[in-house]
Amino acid sequence: MRVSLTVNGKDRADEVEPRLLLVHYLRDVLGLTGTNIGCDTSSCGACTVLVDGESVKSCTMLAVQAEGTEVSTIEGLASDGVLHPLQEAFREHHGLQCGYCTPGMVMAASSLLAEHPHPSEAEVRVGLEGNLCRCTGYHNIVKAVLSAVAP
Amino acid sequence: MTATEAPRKGVLGQRLVRREDPELLTGEARFVADLKVSGTLHLALVRSPMAHARLASVDVSPALEVPGVVAAYSGADLEGEWAGPLPCAWPVTDDMRQPAHLPLAAREVCYVGDAVAVVVAESEYAARDGAEAVLVDYDPLPVVVDLEEAAADRALAHEELGTNTSYVWELKPDEAAVEAAFASAAHVVSGRYVQQRLIPSAMEPRGVLVVPQPFGGEFTVYSATQIPHILKVMLAVTTGISETSLRVIAPSVGGGFGSKLNVYAEEVLALTLARMLKRPVRWIETRSEATQATIQGRGQIQEIELAADERGRIQAVRVRLLADMGAYLQLVTPGVPLLGAFLYSGVYDVPAYSLSCRSVFTNLTPTDAYRGAGRPEATYAIERAVDLLARRVGVDPAEIRRRNYIRPEQFPYSSVAGLVYDSGAYEAALDKALQLAGYEELRAEQARRREAGERHQLGIGVSSYMEMCGLAPSRVLASLNYSAGGWEAATVRILPTGKVQVVTGTAPHGQGHETSWSMIAADRLGISPDDVEVLHSDTAIAPYGLDTYGSRSLSVGGVAVAIATDRVIDKARQIAAHQLEIAPEDLDYGGGEFRAKGSPERSMALGAVAFEAFTAHDLPEGLEPNLEASSHFDPPNFTFPFGTHVCVVEIDTETGGVGLASYVAVDDCGNQVNPLIVEGQVHGGITQGIAQALFEKASYDDQGNLLTSTFMDYLVPAASELPSFVTGSTVTPSPTNVLGVKGVGEAGTIGSAPAVINAVVDALSTYGVEDIEMPATPERVWRAIEQGRRP
Ligand code: FES
Ligand code: FES
Which of B32, B62, B291, B767 could form a disulfide with B133 if both were Cys (CB 3.0 to 4.6 A apart)? Predict the structure, then answer.
């Protein structure tokens, strides 16, 4: 089947197997390996990307279902060699250790902030509930997200 | 800034952001699953659905019919390929029993997930389809799941061993003293604690990619491992491939916590198949596989007794352990209980000690090191028992600890179990933790709620821990029958441009060694950490190393970096002295520059010295060119970090729900290289301890089927289930290394589970509850309350 969509602002059109998951399309077809896979039950959020601005676990969606959408992955966040403020905040506050959950976490956080520009700590914690991190205990992730809130 | 510019003082102790981060934050980092090599074959394993069975037949031929499948083998097909079994490096006793453990089972499967066949295909999907097509006939055998039943040998996990006991190990320095202490004790308390099995759950599952050079005869093994160096040696031993033909690289690795401190069947299989098929072979673990085929942690039943005098001063500790090895002995499986066996006296001045450990096989996934490995178990038992003692004696949990702490003037302290603790100031950490927590006010609030009979009751839990880490003095390891040393290697080079290269034998997977090691070298050289690059995790770059586990990286590997840096400076001093025509001892070094004592205008920058060393045009007689030095540091002792954690829980007495109201941790890991990283380690560590206390348990049915094989049933905590932490520290440098550092990777996990459960039990004490099993789920808490409410 053919799928056409926009990924990180670039138009893409590819012939794909109907059963191909969006995450595999991004990783294996487009070579965008920043989006990680951490589970097989849609529980970990490592694969989180934005589809038309909404955060989506890309392992729960078929590539063909993304037809006509705009997909953003972690690779599209920094521009011209400059980290996005949210990425900068994660670095500043040591919001990552091994970094495996990080791309999904950052994408989930960016969609959270887009929806709730001024979240409380509790809202951040609930908002990131679908993204597991085994390294940080979330403390510094939450701190990073709160610090990235627009003034 | 280069080495020749302005001096910089005191890099150590700064909260430097990590150099590792940008590539991880942008998706640029490469984990094993991200590596693409054309022509790669994908591997899938057929795993046993039965916990114990004889293999009546394994027919791989249907798999070969599946489009894309290239080859398929049963365990019997590959039996001739192995030069040795999967390794266990820690035969703790000379008579330890050990079942044969091959990468693919050939005759018998011994746990659900044991691999019986392997399928290799052009794509991952085809490999999985092929694996599903393989036909296996199993003749069921009796299954042993329960630890105490295993110890009773009612059914055998391995019939050929004749018993489930792998070994019995004892630490009984003076039994008569222990008996006398119990005979004359004013108070005796005892506890029986179950350390449930835990699934390590690093967010990156395991994975391996082997790229052969069919004509060169070389193999590059990329593995999501904590131990590229150890893995290389072990792969040589298991496959018979010469060590000189193997290169192991750990690319970005997404967490380990001990689960990647192993030599796994899939690594050996991928290498063997790449050799047989002369093509790259790749295997990426799924999460459902990870919960069954990656080692699990804990799995112990502990019985502990304390004998104490009138005032609650502990006179003796007696411990009996039953430890679950699982179905096979992996790399350090049998050694895990030993890592805790010396620590059941905790932070207390205890005169008499007795411990025995029986380790048994079950038909479950093998256990092995998981964050803390033996030490969280030990700390849990003593800290729970000490709380019980406080209750018997009728004093506050903080007070009972004060009465028993080893006092600062007693260090270095020779423990009854035979260790020498390097340094400690236990009461200072307690004081700080109580103050940060607002302990007095909390107790008052607790009393108020109790008085008022409120629905939400407070529980306050204190735990003081100490642990031995920085694995390890090689001679001590020898005395424990471990088959390797505990040293670590580092090389420091000053490049011709004055930039610095540090090569380390440690293998970080989230700990930020690149940042910290650059700080250590930069601090000593008086230059910017930005001018120091750190190379690691590739056996072609760092030929010697013993990798990362057991909170050893800084206190062994980081110290090696410091020593090698000092050696480089010594060599540079000779060259600078020669150039400046002055005696080496008349030169001061600082800020990247040598200066003549008394006439600082006679100076030479390190970069200039490096260039002289590189050109070698005019070096002192007999001195070799280039500015490079190495260290292989074998620590004289373990390091002993410590601290006190205070956990406050709020329990809904209607539902049994446990909420974490606050969590305070005061940890002392000696001097801190980078407090930002130290705090991160503490946060993550605490969370894994909380997870054991409240959420996680690998649950099995009586046939050995894992009931928690996905993140839907195995409850790795999310952000919404945790509070922010309050962390503080005290600094008691270790006198055993030049940096004065101690390990911190496991400390949080070691201190936290008992703090949480002490808090839960404290909240429930008004219902007569004295213990609750981990994880303290709402159901367990609710039942405990209901039982207490009954007249
Ligand atoms: S990979 Fe875990 S939710 Fe998608
Ligand atoms: S940083 Fe390792 S899983 Fe989040």
Answer: B62
- Summarised one tens digit per residue, pLDDT across range B457-477 is 999 999 999 999 998 899 999
Structural domain containing residue B136: 32-141+200-293
- Domain range spanning residue A49? 2-73
Query: How many Å lie between the alpha carbon of A67 and the closest alpha carbon of chain B?
Result: 23
CATH of the domain at A12: 3.10.20.30
Among residues A17, A44, A73, the one where a domain terminates is A73
The 10 Å Cβ neighbour count of residue B605 is 18
Residue A81 banded pLDDT, cuts 50, 70, 90: confident
Phi and psi at residue B220, to the nearest 5°: -105, 125
For the record, the structure tokens of B680 come out as 């991160």
Strand partners, B32: none
Q: How many other CB atoms are found less than 10 A from the CB of residue B61?
A: 10
Residue B278 pLDDT greater than 80, yes or no: yes
The reported pTM is 0.97
Q: Assess whether the C-beta atom of A100 lies below 6 angstroms from ligand 2.
A: yes
Report yes or no on A93 lying in a domain. Answer: yes
* d(CA B23, ligand 2 centre) in Å: 14
Name which of A39, A40, A137 is nearest B684 (Cβ-Cβ): A137
CATH at B524: 3.30.365.10
What's the total number of domains in chain A? 2
Which residues does B312 contact at the CB level (< 8 Å), separation at least 6? Answer: B187, B389, B390, B392, B393, B395, B400, B403, B404
Report the nearest atom of ligand 1 relative to the CA of B287. Answer: 2
The C-alpha atoms of residue B788 and residue B746 are separated, in whole angstroms, by 36
